Amino acid sequence: MAKYSLIPGGVKPGDILTVMLKVTGTDPVTGAAMLECCMPNRDGGEPAPGLVAIASPAVPLPAQENKVPVSAEIRQGGTRYAHLIEMTRGLEPIRTAVVHPVDCNSLVGAVAAARAKLIVPILVGPEARIRAAAIQAGVDVSPFELVATQHSDASAIEAVAMARAHKVEALMKGAIHTDELMHAVVDQEKGLRTARRISHVFAIDAPRYPRPLFITDAAINIYPTLTDKRDIVQNAIDLAHALGIAVPCVAILSAEEMVTESITSTLDAAALCKMAERGQITGGILDGPLAFDNAVSLEAAQTKGIVSAVAGRANIFVVPDLEAGNMLAKQLEYLADAHIAGIVLGARVPIILTSRADKIEARLGSSALALLLARHVKH
Questions:
Q1: Which site among 117, 146, 153, 203 is 20 to 30 Å from 73 CA-CA?
Q2: CA 277: distance to chain centroid?
Q3: Strands (E), 273-370
Q4: What is the mean pLDDT of the chain?
Q5: Where does the pLDDT of residue 232 fall: very low under 50, low under 70, confident under 90, or very high at 90 and above?
Q6: Domains of the chain, each with CATH number or no CATH
Q7: CB of 239 within 8 A of CB of 343?
Q8: Which residues contact 154 (CB under 8 A, 6 or more apart)?
Q9: Backbone angles phi, psi at 3, to 5 degrees
Q10: How far apart are CA 337 and CA 14, in angstroms?
Q11: Rounded to whole angstroms, what are the CA distances from 114 to 18, 96, 101, 144, 330?
């Protein structure tokens, strides 16, 4: 049996909760073990305390079964995101244009990031729809500035104009398609282009991987050229530096480790490593081509006779194309209990790019990335 205090914001199916338990004693009547618990709520507020009682089995297990060894592995997801958010403590939140937040998920995510002191949201979109979504989600948007637009395309154009005018320091994707937002961002005359190719990075908190893990590019560049990949790699290295990783290890992924003209990604990998040697890519250690198993497992690399400073130690995984990267990231999320945050780099401001299905953890993690990157660049 369990007794919980009310969790503000409620809990929905599919939410991932971190619960801390402490055994405090036993119930004198039932003999049940009593545990104090602390459970965070969905929207980034204060944890909710509670009490859990666990009863012993009514019938003792047979002696033979008692002798069967039992092992358990406890893996806690989201710890790296918690660390990212902790790194932002003391930093001034970034003014962020939330583009077209007309559904509950995007609006609740923006409000949660504001409560966590990661962003100061400026809501850009149709006022009536934003307020209707706020009522449906049960959140108060009255403390936040609202810039009214007629439709999603106008929301993207207005948010980009605000960034060009230095009225905001970041953009956050709301209930708008990525291509519609990015169309305004990459506009040649009125967009947010820089000399660097714009790219996307997934920051992935994989509980079983012992180090930070980034996948690029899995959302913007569909079939990047070698020149595109140079910028994609440099963008990811710069992000790693902003997060305190002084010399990230970069694995250029392919289907195999040998350079062969029949697999273009192996040629690109070899060229990127040579570009790093010549100073065209700086700040990280590159190696490739590497198959995924060699990038994550030193044992696998040693078995294949691969001598590499990156194998088994990779932080950044550079995929051949968007399809491979998107599948890899989603596989980690749904099959390996990974948490995924996303950010677009190479524009004049960071762009917090999350899926409409993403949970609060992803939106907070992405906001923390943007804040750390913005403050790192500024200083």
A1: 203
A2: 30
A3: 285-290, 316-318, 339-345, 351-352
A4: 85
A5: very high
A6: 2-57 (no CATH), 90-193+348-379 (3.40.50.10950), 196-346 (3.40.718.10)
A7: yes
A8: none
A9: -125, 125
A10: 12
A11: 21, 10, 14, 9, 27
